[in-house]
Amino acid sequence: GDFANINKTFGKDDIPDIYLEISLGDRKCKTKTIVDCVDPRWDESMDFVLSGYDQKLNIKAYDAKDSLLDTNHVVGVAEIAAGELILSGGKKNVRVPLQVKHVNTGAYIALNFELCPLISSPESYENPLKSSNDLGGLMTIIVIQAHKLPIPKEEAATCVNVTCGMKKFTTGVVAYVPEYDGLPGCDVLNPFYDTIFEIPLDLEMLMKKIPSVVFELVNGEKQILGKLEVPYTEFIASPNATTIESRQIGDAGAHLDFHITINGIKPASVIKSSAVFEQAKPGIRSTEEAKIDSPQNVRTVNSQPTLVDENADTSKLHITMVSGQGFKTTKKRFVKDIPDVYCVVKFGSSPKTWRTSTIKNNELPIWNESNDYTFSNHNQVINVEVFDENSNGKDDFYGSFRVTVGQVLLDGGMREVEISRDGKLTGLFINVKCELD
């Protein structure tokens, strides 16, 4: 791109001093300023957390001020969906034109990227980061369910506040609704929150040491039912830096199920298969040859949710239970018992529970059954329990799984998820599909 025609506050012949601000989700990074150059090249890497294909990578190009009388002013903006970068293929440079008031300026930013998987190794967050644009890893906090709330159910309107240092989050509210009382999955005294929060481990957090995680169980606007603190030293010492527990919260007998895990990031140089989105270095050149070889590196970590945007617009989410596999015929009292599989689906804190039909006598059940829910962010969790229906007696529980909308969308809209039971994988799989309307 050619920045030679950029207008400055003083002097038509003033050569621009270009720097970029690049953001994805709640994270914003800034390049160095290339002084007196119409074809700047940065070769800087930046790390972002990716939670969905439709997330927008936003770029602003600035001409830096030359004096106290001058001001930094925007010389062009651009945006590109994460999915477009991924579909463009691997580390190939992607050129994004800069615009002013939706008109192309003739300049562009060249990006390349990699998807970097999250790993259990602590190396990336235990070693010093090179710059504030780098991430050392990702902390994931899942608020699953509370039990035995010490309040009348008619007064229940509970949520969980989560604090980790300066980061603060809140689950959705689970409130008593008379018409839902008694329905499966609608016990407001044992409410499911199923909400995931992610905290990128950036330079500032790692320099201060990772803080404890504090859960606060709240009813209504002011009634605090209890607090629970989990020190960093505790969950980092757990196997794979993962803690999944149910603990008492408060003094009245309530318990909270939660999950805390810390992941490192696999170095880009050894990536073979990608589970993290990496943005490349933005490079701006004026010649055709330069346009090809001057990328700006952006690296993104593929996870589920980033921070929940409470003001995000809502839309309709179409969830389809597609099929299952791995189910086996067993012998019961000298009789072959061929699986009769059905699923019970719950979405986030929605009180609506949905049951698929039962596929009789089939080791490879196919449902292709759908339901619609209100979608607000990629962190919303799809909670599925899988059963074998029995004509006599209680149905057999195969197990369950949780998956976020963002995870499914990152797999192209359909994901095969393995069922677990009592914390162990079962070798049984369900295909779930998500479509946004």
Key phrases:
five-stranded mixed sheet; 437 residues; 29 strands; 6 helices; mainly beta; five-stranded antiparallel sheet; single chain
Structural features, described:
With about 425 residues, the chain is mainly beta. The chain has six helices and 29 strands. The strands form seven sheets. Strands 3, 6, 7, 18 and 19 form a five-stranded mixed sheet that branches. Strands 8, 9, 13, 16 and 17 form a five-stranded antiparallel sheet that branches. It is globular and about 90 Å long. About 40% of the residues are buried. About 10% of the residues have low confidence.
Shape: globular
Give the uncertain stretches in residue-range form: 270-296, 303-312
* Helix segment tally: 6
- Whole-angstrom Rg: 25 Å
Helix content: under 10%
